[in-house]
Every structure is written in C-alpha cells, then in structure tokens.
Design brief:
Strand order of the largest sheet: 7-8-10-9-11-12-13-14
Number of helices: 17
Distance between the termini: 72 Å
Oligomer: single chain
Mean pLDDT: 91
Strand content: 15-25%
Length: 505
Amino acid sequence: MTAFVLVPGAHTGGWVWEEVAGRLREAGARAHPVTLTGMDGRRGGASRGRPATDLETHIEDLVRLIDGLEAPRVVLVGHCYGIHPALGAAGRRPERIARIVHLDTGVPRDGDPALRLVPDRSVHERLSQGAGRAEGDDPLIPPPSPEGWQRWGSTAGVPGEALERLARLAAPQPPGTLTQPLRLSEAVSGLPATGVLCTANGPGIASIEAMARLGDPRVRALADPRVGFFELATGHWPMLSCPGELADVLLRAAAGEGRRLSVPTERPAHLRPFILDVPEAPRERTGRVDLHLPDADGPRPAVVFVHGGPVPPGTRPTPRDWPAFTGYARYAASLGAVGVTVDHRLHDIADYGRAAEDVAEAVDLARADPRVDGERVALWFFSGGGLLSADWLAKPPPWLRCVAATYPLLSPPPGWPVDDARFRPAAALRTAGRLPVVLTRVELELPELAATAEEFLAAAEDCGADVEVIDVPGGRHGFETVDRTDRARRAVDRAVRSVLGHLRS
C-alpha cells in the first residue's frame, strides 16, 4: 500500500490537502496531510525559551512523522515552499523515501533559502526591513489578502468558495522558514523524483526540455530515467482546483509513470545556422558587448539585440555568439545599421533586475561610440528577454525610435519571483505613446508565451499603441535556426527592414 506524505506550501496546513487525501484513500493508498509547526494559526515564534520556528523545525516535523509511519517507504509530496522541508527530511531518511514529488515548485539547490523563489515582493521587503532584529523577534509574515494570493501563484481554476477558505484558514509564516538555507544531502540526488507542472502558472514540459538543450546542468540532470513529469492545465493550487486529477497524477507518479525529458544528442537548435545567408561584418568586443559594424561613413543608427533566458552561467558559447544573434546583427550591418549584441546576466528567473542593468549599460556603451548615431537606436528583445522591454516602454527616451520583440514573454508567470509592477510590458505599453513596436509571433508558440502576447496585444488595442504584428505561419520558437522555410525567411527580412525603417524615419 502506497503511503503519501503531503507537505503544504507557505501559509497553509494539512487542511489544504483534505480532498486529495480522500481521493488517495479511496484508491487504496494511505495519505498523511501535514500541518507543520506554527502553521495551525498559533504563534510559531520564540516563546518560553523555545527557539523560533524555522526550516529546520519543519524538517524535524517530517522526520518524526516518517519515523512513526508503518509503511516501509513513502512518497513525499512538496507543494511550493513545502519542497524545502521535504527535501531536507528526505536527505536524513533516504532509505524510507520511494519518490519525491515536486508539485508546481522548483528544484532547490544546497544553500538556497525558500525566500529565493517567493514571488511576492512584499515578503522580501518585509524581511529586509526586519534585518537587525534580535533572533526570534522577527514578526510573522502575514498571509496574503484575499485578492493577494495571485502574487504567490495563479489561482486559475480555484472555485470561489475554495479561495475564500484558503484566505480564511491561512496562517502567518514564521520568517525563519523562508530565510534559513536548505542543506541538502548527496543522497537526495539519487532518489526517484517527479515534477508536476501547472501550466496556468508557469512553463510546461516543452519549456523545461528547451532549457535542458541550452546545457544547464541542473536541468539536464532531470533527463535521468528516474525522473518523470506530468502537466496539469491549472493554476498553482491543483489540490483546490482539480483534486481528482491531482490524486490520479500522484498515484501514477508513485507507480513510476510520467514523461521523461527528451534531450537530443545532436547539435542544439540554438547553435544551428541562421536562416539567412548574411555577409560577415567587422565585429568589435568591449566587455559583454559586441558591435557589428556596417561598411559606411559617419555615425549610423543602431539595433541592440537582447537575448532571452534564463541562460545558465556556464553556457558556451554565450548568447552573443549564437548564430541567431550574430545573424541578426550582421544582417542589420549589411543594411547600414550597427548591430549590437550583449551577454546580459539573466541566469535565473530571479535575475531580471541585474539583466536590466546590463542591458542599460550596453545601450549607453553603444550610444557613446562615435560610429553610432546615439539619437537613433532600436531595442529588440527575444523570448524570456521580452520582460526587459518594460522599462523602455514605460518611459521611452527620445532617442529610442523602435522596440521589437520576437516570440517574447510579455508578462511574468504568476509563480516567478519577478517584480510584477516593473517587468510587465503590457502595462508599460500604456505610457509608451506612439513609440513603434514590431512584434514577431510564431504559429507553434509555447502556450505559456502565446498567452502573454495576447495580453500585450489586448493592451495595445486598449490604449491605441503602434504595434505591427509579423506572423510566422508554421513557425516554432527559435524559428531562425530551426525552420528552413521561405515564410520564416520572409518574416526575418520583414522584421529587420521594419525596424530599420523606423530608425531612418
């Protein structure tokens, strides 16, 4: 008989699992929903000589529970924050763990605090303001307001009464549970694992495979045959939105089912040749920035190409040497503009602020070059780099003549630890005025990206923004190196010429 230990996320307790636990028991399994210390609504801080509740407290909770179970081995299910104590406990009792299920949550590394992946920026601000208080004196983190749960993850599919109950029963979170680093045993990496991806809240399996193809060792490790994946077409709270489907997925995961990642051994798609045959252009490198120079006299307009991501820090070659970006930059140079490529440091979904600084520095460097007409510059964003366009759309400087975006992410997924107020191009577009925007869409787009483009276009229609849409029939994400079709070639040519036309007007 399979035994499941169901570990809840922040602000919640075992009650959040009630319906899923019931379905599991009906199927003949044992189910043990957990309410961790301090999460029953009573204060979990230091009192009467007890230490404050922290991540270690919650790990010990789970170890004691596992030790008391009759089942020889258990399936540990961690939702959101719950994966941190689950992994900590698994490292101390690896012989008792049959499988670890990551339910709509990441894969923390050794030393990561749970706070790193908390998307609600108000929590970060509260904890930073509490720095310097005596140990155990930090106030508990209050649960979100009823309308604030969306900042922790998409509430898509959650019935109104379930959302009301979530808000009513939620408990304050002890700050040490979020700030104490997770210490992982090597034994954890050898345990079977399953990822359950909620696609209304973030990427699906196709996106994970795309990250693995970039060479990220953390993601490529997930191509292990012991690791399986499932998708649920719902938000961050599947135990509330689709408990029956979730129970079925957990039973299948326990049986070792699930899709395995497919990581081709041939040359990765992003390193295949550019779709157009473009001439070489002189290239000069300064720091993280390359200038591809046209054969022309006098200052020329410039296009700054901003790659997507996250791109692992050890990826070689780096994006500015990928055929797509050198191809775009050379094509721009062949048509009389300076093509600028930059290696920004979007290595993780929490790095958008740092990447934005890198892009701004690259723009300043390019504009300061005497071969660049600093009053005629375009910015072109790709894929996950699309969120970086928001700063420029919100307050476009007079020298910015055009913003382009190709198969872009144009609003942050609900579960990402990204400053939603800053990095949301659809909202920024409302203050862009008549700044031209050239948007290239592919027909076979990843669903999670396609939805953000629709949101962006709805905002454009609302505010009368100047957006030109270039569609690529049959095109795939990264089409410039994966689709060898005339339609794809025409889309690249049209987009480049449209952007340069705005620079010349």
